[in-house]
Every structure is written in C-alpha cells, then in structure tokens.
Amino acid sequence: MYARIITSMNNLRLRTKLFLSFGCVALIPVLIVGVFLTSELRNMAMDNALKQITANVDRVKKRTGELLDVPLDIAYRLSNDSRLEEAANHRYVSVYDVVQAYWNYPDFREFVRLYREISSIRLYIDNPTVLDNWEFLQADETVTQEPWYRTALAQKGMVCWNYIRDNRDGRYYLSLIRKVNFFKQRTSGVLVVNVNTDRLNGILNQESFETLIVDENDNIVASNRTELLGQTLNDLNFKAESAAGPGFYDVSIDGKPFTMLIDDWQPGGSLNSLRIISIFSVESIVKEPNRIIMLASAVILSALIMAILLIYYFSRLLTGRMLQLSKHISKVGSGNLGATLVIDGKDEIGQLARQFNHMVRNINDLMSEVQESNRQKNAILLKQNEIKFKMMASQINPHFLFNALESIRMKAHVRGQADISQVVRLLGKMMRKNLEVGNRRISLQSELETVSCYLVIQKFRYDDRLAYELHIDPKANLVQIPPLIIQPLVENSVVHGLENRIDGGMVRVDIRIEDGLLKVQVSDNGAGISKTRMHEIRQMLESKDDYESNNIGMRNIHLRLKLTYGPECGLTLASQEGFGTQISFEIPLRSDSYV
C-alpha cells in the first residue's frame, strides 16, 4: 500500500506536488481549524440560547405558578364555605327569596374584585329552585355532557385545568375546575374559576422568545403572540421528530428550523398538567456567528489566493530549469552523447546538472566496454548452441525404445517365457512412467505402482536372495505427493543394502497416516552403513554444493521434500552396520506447497 502511494506521488508533476504540499501543510489545516472554530462558535451560541430559554421557562413557570396559586386558594376556601353550601342547596319558594339569597352571598363578586388574577367564578349545581345568573348556574344536559364536567365529578375534589368556553360571554379561558362536596346536604357541584387571560399573557409578553402555555389537549391558552390564542399546536404547521415529553426538540415551522423546549407542570398537584413551550429560531441565533464566520472566511480566502499565486510563481522558476534538464536527457536518450548542460546555479538543480554532465562522460567511456562485452557474449552463446545441438543429436527416441521392449516381450511370451515377458512389460511400464514425470503431483497409489514394478524386476534378477513387503494404509492411496520420492529410496535399499550380501535380504515399505501426517519408511536388513559413511551422507544431504556420487538421487529427494513441504520434512536416516538401514520421512496431508 505504501509503495503504491509513493509510486503515485512520483508520477505527479513538480508543480502539482507543490500545490499538494501547500494543501497538506496550509490549506487543509486552515480548513480543519476553520470548521472546528465555526462549529464551536455555533455550538456556543446554541448553548447560550438553550441556557437562556431554560431560564426563561423557569421564570415563566415561577410567575405563572404565583398567578395560579390565587384560583387554587379561592377554590380551597370556597369548597369549605358553609355559607356557600347553604346558598347552593336551599329550597327557595319564590324569586324574591332567590334574589335575596344571592345578595346575601357576595363572595364570588368580592373575589373577582379583589384578585385581578381571576376574571370570574361560577358554580354548577343541581337545584331547580335557584335561578341562573352569572355565578350560580343549573347544570343542564349540554354542560353535563362536557368532558371537563364529567372528569370533575369523577374525581374526589382534585383540581383540573382546562381551556373551556364560558357560555356567558362566549370566550375561552384557562379555568380551574373542581368538584365541591356539600357534606351536610349530601350534594355536590362543580366550581369553575376563570383565570385572567390578560394577566397570563402579560407574563409571557416579557419573554424575548416565543412562549406558549398549552393544556393537555394542545390548546394554546396563553402566548406572547395574541393571534395564537385559541389555536392548537397543529395549527402552527410545525413538524417535530418527537415532542411527547419534556425536553429540547428540533422542529420545522413553515420550512424553517426552530428549537423548542417543552416543560410539563402540574400547578398545585392538579390532576392534569400544563405545558410551557418556548420556541426560538435557529437562524436568528446563529446570525451573528455566521457574520463573523463569513468575515473570517473572506480574510482566509484572500490569504490563500495570495499563497497560491506565490507558489505558482516559484513553481515556474523550478519547473523551467527542470524542463531544460529533461530536454538534454531526452537528447542523450536519443543517442546524442555530445549534449552538455549549462550549469546556472549551486542549488539541487545545479547539482543535478553537474551530475548529468558527468554521467554523459561516463556513458561515452562505457560504450566501448559494452561493445567488447557483447562480442564476447555472442561467442559464448554460439558455443552453447553447438553443445545443445550435439546433445539433441545424441538423444534416443523413447518410442523406439518402448517398441523394442514390446517386441522382446512378445517374443518371450510366444516362446513360453512368461517370467521374462512379465519383467520386460514391467520394465517398459516403469520407464514410461519415469519419462512422463513432470512437475505435477501424483497419487501415492501411482507411485507405489512404480515401486512394485521395480521390486518385481529386481526379484526376477535376484530370485530368492530378495524378499520384500509392502504395508500400505488403504486411506493413503489417494494422497497427492511429488513423483519419484519412494522408488529411489527402495532402489537405494536394494542396490546398497542387499546387492553385496550373498544370502540376500528383506526390503520393507511401511506407509501409514497418523496425526495428520503421511509417514513413509523404507527399511532393509542389509549390510548397513558405517558411522563415518553415515556422517558423510548427512553432510552431503545438507550441503548446498552439487555432488556427483551414488547418493545423488537421495539428495535430490531430500531437497525436493524440504522445498515442497518445509525445512522440517526432509529425509531421516538410521543405520547400524551389519543390521540394516532405515530411511523415512513425514509430510503433512495438505494440498498447498511450502514454496
């Protein structure tokens, strides 16, 4: 990977490298720092805005809580007022009595006069003898079907906050709703205290960000934008990924990004909650940071343009001299060895010019030497070709040899010499296998066929002096091995172990699979090898020099095994003079090669 990068860089022009260097050293760091500072500046502005909006919401909650404490206190006092219980449950016999009772209970009007936090109070009761006025109202069927009314009756005096319509003036108010139990009369009514909307909006008007108070049904009950009163959140045409609970949310209003803070709140431990929502425009918050960023970007861009112009100027100075050097190199490349470059400086390019002139002189000096070397090389090649031609002329056509052996076999077979015929057939088969051997691997079974042919031929030659045994694990027959790595070992045991022994001997081949290895052992009970000769053989196997001896086949097998399967997979020899020799090797059962 690193080499490919270096190669790609070397293929670039010098001017391009200078610009890349400028980009890596100056442009990219400046851009990274600029992006980082820009991001941090925007984040700081957003963090400050979030802290401010959080403080605003806390302030709104505190001031609104103080306002809503008034209707809470009034509702508590009225729910324990025995005079209210008497006025609401008394059975009146005339209109005069009703009017007189209303005048005798002015508390509703006094609360409205004393506390500007509320706009009105009304009580819904089930008493057919009373008259509907602004304060005491009959709970008709329309009212009793309202969700807020049924919710209030279902609770045991808990407070609910709802944005409901007051039928008396047709306007909507944030209202405290509470069931009032009259224990003496064993009746109940529903108290409704309307919060002063102007005072509620006045609290929000002091906030710099757009702030809303929303009930549980998403009705906007107060806002510092009066045109939003009475609308719902869905009417604002904003989209939020999730705005289910308290927290900050990124929203889109009319396609523009906004940040919204939602805070749930249950005034006085009420049954339901109100939500304070504060919204600010992201664009307005980052407007000033963006202006600073644009100014800084203009300054940085001007500096970068000036730096690029300076790099362009200096790169032309460098590339002009390099181009002149390139032209002279091209002249030399085309055969003009008389080209000489004028040296015009002491910098690196001037040093290259001096080295170029020195190189041209050296090339002229070497030309004569090269011509003489080529003449000698051609003479050597001519001699080698002559030797190859003589070697090819001296080769015997193998097909002629096979045909001759087949003729001998047929003659022996016709004359009843079955053993001679069999030996000649095996000899031809063995020679054909040896000639067909290439670099490809063969199965162990194919190699053992060659071994069997060889042993049968040698058995014919030595008769009773030679005995052999083959002990082969059937599972090993299909293992792929390099050709001719067992037959030469068997041949070595017969020739060197038994040939000089008058009473002959035994050759044994053991092949088995064990521990993921193919284990091969060729042993004989022949003359054995002396310690001195064993030391010489082992040195010969490990030596890197070429040998011309009777053990060249064994060394060849040893090197092939190590090259194919690794340095630990060579031949292992064990011998005792007068008792025989064992040659063995182990190779892994794998299809890949060590090299």
UniProtKB/TrEMBL annotation:
One GO cellular component term noted in the UniProt record for this chain: plasma membrane
Pfam families named in the record: HAMP, HATPase_c, His_kinase
Keyword Acyltransferase in record: no
Location(s), subcellular: Cell membrane
SMART domains noted in UniProt: HAMP
The entry's keywords: Cell membrane, Kinase, Membrane, Phosphoprotein, Transferase, Transmembrane, Transmembrane helix
MF term (GO), any: phosphorelay sensor kinase activity
Signal peptide region: none
Protein name: Sensor histidine kinase
Membrane topology category: Multi-pass membrane protein
Regions that span the bilayer: 18-37, 292-314
Gene3D superfamilies attached to this UniProt entry: 6.10.340.10, Histidine kinase-like ATPase, C-terminal domain (3.30.565.10), PAS domain (3.30.450.20)
Record InterPro entries: Bact_2-comp_sensor_kinase, HAMP_dom, HATPase_C_sf, HATPase_dom, Sig_transdc_His_kin_internal
Source superkingdom: Bacteria
